[in-house]
Design brief:
Layout: H1 6-22, E1 36-38, E2 44-46, H2 60-74, H3 78-108, H4 110-122, H5 130-144, H6 148-160, H7 166-175, H8 177-229
Antiparallel strand pairs: 1-2
Helix pairs in contact: 1-2, 1-3, 2-3, 3-8, 4-5, 4-7, 5-6
């Protein structure tokens, strides 16, 4: 079977990244840890994890599936190509993780973001005490996560100022912008390293193909010489 081009492999990596992100199993689902065993003192211990890249809250079977799909798509030949595929699988897993972290970081700021938005909306000059509207904003922000009635109340307040829940998202993004920027730089670096590893595979295969062609041509030349030397001459 012919090897795939570098562009084809790059497109397949993007497909694999999206597939792995969508099929991410949260929590402790999946076979993400080896079975505990008893040590000499009778206590439960956990055997070493076969995939060090996988965190204890991630699923090892998902990483194994990702690695297997890469093997099928790239079809590595020999130790060097298998090493590159392992690097690509690791980098791709890190990229998926960082993308997930980005979403989690924004979601984790929603409570504070909602408090800030509500404090701006609920502020009235007639409030004598600052705590009057701040307490109301804090209570409503907390209830928003637990009560549909509070969600409806917040939505009504936002509409009064021609806003919607995107205002909460924007404020959460603003609060965490420095962390998000750092994550984006880490993702860019990981993507560059992934693309380099992919390029190295294509370059290695091209170099190997050239060496094999040169070697075969030399063998044929030697065989031609031997054939000429052993051809009987006419008297």
């Amino acid at each position: 079977m012919s090897h795939k081009s570098e562009n084809e492999l790059g497109n397949q990596l993007e497909d694999l990244s999206g597939k792995a992100s969508r099929s991410r199993i949260p929590g402790n689902q999946g076979s993400n840890m080896t079975d505990p065993t008893d040590n000499a003192s009778g206590e439960k211990t956990t055997a070493s994890r076969p995939y060090p890249i996988v965190l204890m809250t991630e699923a090892e079977d998902e990483f194994a599936s990702l690695h297997e799909e890469l093997d099928q798509d790239i079809q590595p030949k020999g130790f060097i190509e298998r090493m590159y595929v392992q690097d690509i699988a690791t980098l791709l897993w890190e990229i998926i993780r960082l993308r997930r972290f980005k979403t989690v970081i924004i979601n984790s700021a929603f409570h504070k973001a909602l408090q800030n938005v509500l404090k701006q909306i609920l502020f009235r000059p007639e409030f004598i005490e600052k705590l009057d509207y701040e307490d109301e904003a804090d209570t409503l922000a907390y209830d928003w996560f637990h009560s549909q009635k509070a969600k409806n109340q917040v939505a009504k307040l936002l509409r009064q100022f021609r806003l919607d829940e995107c205002a909460i998202e924007a404020e959460a993004f603003r609060l965490m912008s420095s962390d998000i920027d750092r994550l984006d730089r880490m993702m860019t670096l990981a993507e560059v390293r992934r693309d380099k590893a992919l390029h190295y595979i294509a370059e290695y295969r091209d170099s190997l193909a050239r060496r094999l062609r040169q070697s075969s041509e030399q063998i044929l030349e030697v065989e031609d010489v031997r054939h000429i030397e052993h051809t009987p001459t006419e008297n």
